[in-house]
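User: Could you go from structure to sequence for me? I need the amino acid at each position, not a summary. Structure tokens:
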């Protein structure tokens, strides 16, 4: 899936104009005024969001963001506004941040500056931006509308069908597309658009909306409004949505990367959270790692792993803005393993495979240029990951647990989980109740499967050992480099090289593990021939057969029929630093019936139910 950067200029009337589509971005009578009249007024906003816990809007055709910014302004000015506002917007030709600021309506300059400051890298997929301490959430679907219609999940309360004229851009108004988007309507949902084309109105009617034409804005004599009143019971997939009331309390089993992320997200939504861990402190297991690398995993075919790590990295960057002392994301160099891999990467860029990489995301880099960035000359050139880097893993986990306000119960092993009435109970190995709550999230790596009898979770453990070097061993290296293994030189002079990938059942001698790791170092930097290991870190990775994480609501299964209210976050392998924040947001969205910040096909790819004989 590819996207093209949108182009914008001014026409002879001074209106924002698209050379590609030969049409203006908004009415010559005023963009802000049109948005207020057509999209807010036509959907009876702000009245309809007042007193609601949350309200969700979908827009097809984000453009300059005028409708979002107008909605944001109205929401902020309304003392009776909803508790949260979710805004899902589709855009196949995203503009640059500078365009958002330059061409903003004079009434929206402040809001446009704010949006531009959060504007994401122009890569395909979902990009989540948050405002007002998370009370306003903007999910940008940078992809063609035809693709987005298949990837939306959840339900909306209001629909803004916008975009260029059907004559200029017929794909955005294709009846099948409009019906697909409308299939996500809640009962009582509304829509409003300036477009009154008969084919468009017919598509809305066939999708279950009661449609009428009403007086339009400015030089447009009419516009279209509608209310969702289906004649037949509306069937919408709720596979990934919670089917019970929003939980007031939750148990999180595991106080590592996954568990601390979940605890923070649930606490933000007002849940009373108790975290239980068998260790003596938070981050006692694999998350005890002092520093870890964070970067996306590129592929030439934009595979699921690349898409997931892209989104995970973006969410991680957003979260880590609250912990600046624990992160260094000035960039990371990934060296090619050999000349063949380097040539493959060069072909990606020459052929724009899988898409044209923005320079503020990923670019080719020679060994000489890499030396100027990382302080040492690598054996080969490779990729420069802008915005990637290293994070102080254990400190971050403990800081996040502390900020969450969750109660922490340590040195306690959960033996079983059972449901009594509407409550989940966590019991110790002797059958004594440790805690009970409305929901449970299991985040204890490979041990997760032991707590879910009857659920087919084929998880395996792989040992990883990292060799720690003496201070002074890599004084010239700045930050981190990956490739055949990786090397880290942190700001506090922690130096690690690794890591092994060993079977949990077999015992590799420590000396051999060090030799493997040090061979990675000399492969990266042939000039380093005298490095010695002074210690090591050991952890166990949890891995699923398809090498993707296992995240979300647990399905009912034979032997475990009453699974409502139980979730898992595990199997992140070597990428726990990248996946943990994404996983937590997916689980919180499912638990609280919020829009899920993930395309529907990726949600299925990480769903715990994918290993059942009959996947849901």
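Assistant: Here is the amino acid at each position, in order:
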């Amino acid at each position: 899936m590819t996207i093209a950067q949108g182009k914008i200029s001014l026409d002879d009337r001074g209106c924002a104009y698209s050379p590609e589509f030969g049409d203006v971005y908004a009415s010559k009578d005023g963009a802000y005024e049109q948005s207020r009249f057509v999209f807010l007024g036509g959907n009876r906003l702000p009245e309809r969001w007042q007193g609601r816990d949350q309200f969700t809007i979908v827009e097809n055709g984000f453009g300059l963001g005028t409708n979002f910014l107008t909605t944001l302004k109205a929401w902020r000015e309304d003392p009776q506004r909803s508790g949260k506002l979710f805004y899902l917007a589709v855009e196949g030709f995203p503009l640059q941040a500078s365009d958002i600021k330059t061409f903003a309506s004079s009434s929206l300059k402040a809001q446009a500056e704010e949006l531009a400051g959060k504007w994401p890298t122009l890569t395909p997929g979902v990009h989540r931006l948050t405002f007002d301490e998370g009370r306003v959430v903007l999910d940008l679907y940078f992809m063609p509308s035809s693709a987005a219609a298949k990837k939306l999940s959840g339900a909306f309360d209001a629909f803004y069908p916008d975009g260029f004229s059907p004559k200029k851009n017929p794909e955005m108004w294709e009846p099948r597309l409009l019906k697909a988007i409308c299939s996500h309507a809640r009962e009582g949902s509304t829509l409003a658009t300036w477009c009154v084309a008969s084919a468009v109105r017919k598509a809305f009617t066939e999708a279950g909306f009661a449609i009428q034409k009403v007086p339009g804005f400015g030089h447009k004599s009419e516009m279209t409004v509608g209310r969702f009143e289906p004649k037949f019971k509306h069937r919408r997939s709720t596979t990934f949505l919670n089917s019970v009331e929003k939980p007031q309390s939750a148990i999180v089993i595991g106080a590592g990367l996954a568990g601390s992320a979940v605890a923070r997200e649930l606490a933000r939504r007002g849940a009373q959270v108790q975290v239980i861990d068998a260790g003596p402190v938070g981050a006692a297991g694999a998350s005890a790692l002092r520093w870890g690398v964070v970067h996306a995993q590129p592929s030439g075919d934009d595979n699921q792993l690349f898409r997931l790590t892209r989104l995970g990295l973006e969410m991680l960057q957003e979260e880590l803005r609250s912990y600046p002392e624990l992160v260094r994301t000035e960039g990371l160099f990934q060296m090619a393993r050999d000349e063949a891999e380097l040539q493959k990467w060069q072909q990606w860029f020459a052929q724009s495979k899988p898409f044209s990489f923005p320079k503020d995301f990923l670019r080719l880099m020679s060994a000489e240029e890499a030396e100027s960035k990382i302080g040492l000359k690598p054996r080969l050139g490779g990729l420069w990951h802008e915005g990637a880097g290293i994070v102080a893993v254990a400190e971050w986990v403990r800081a996040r647990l502390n900020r969450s306000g969750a109660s922490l119960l340590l040195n306690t092993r959960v033996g079983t989980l059972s449901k009594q009435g509407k409550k989940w109970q966590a019991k110790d190995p002797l059958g004594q109740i440790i805690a009970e709550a409305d929901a449970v999230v299991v985040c204890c790596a490979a041990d997760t499967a032991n707590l879910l009898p009857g659920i087919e979770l084929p998880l395996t453990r792989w040992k990883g050992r990292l060799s720690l070097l003496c201070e002074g061993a890599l004084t010239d290296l700045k930050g981190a480099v990956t490739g055949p293994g990786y090397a880290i030189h942190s700001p506090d002079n922690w130096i690690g090289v690794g890591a092994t990938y060993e079977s949990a059942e077999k015992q590799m001698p420590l000396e051999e593990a060090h030799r493997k790791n040090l061979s990675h170092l000399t492969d990266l930097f042939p000039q380093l021939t005298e490095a010695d290991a002074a210690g090591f870190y050991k952890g166990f990775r949890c891995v699923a057969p398809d090498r993707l994480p296992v995240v979300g609501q647990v399905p009912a299964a034979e032997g475990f029929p009453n699974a409502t209210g139980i979730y898992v976050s595990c199997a992140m392998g070597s990428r726990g630093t990248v996946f943990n924040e994404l996983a937590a947001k997916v689980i919180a969205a499912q638990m609280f019936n919020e829009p899920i910040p993930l395309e529907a096909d990726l949600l299925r790819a990480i769903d715990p139910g994918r290993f059942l004989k009959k996947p849901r």
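One structural detail worth keeping in mind: Residues 154 and 302 are 24 Å apart (CA to CA).
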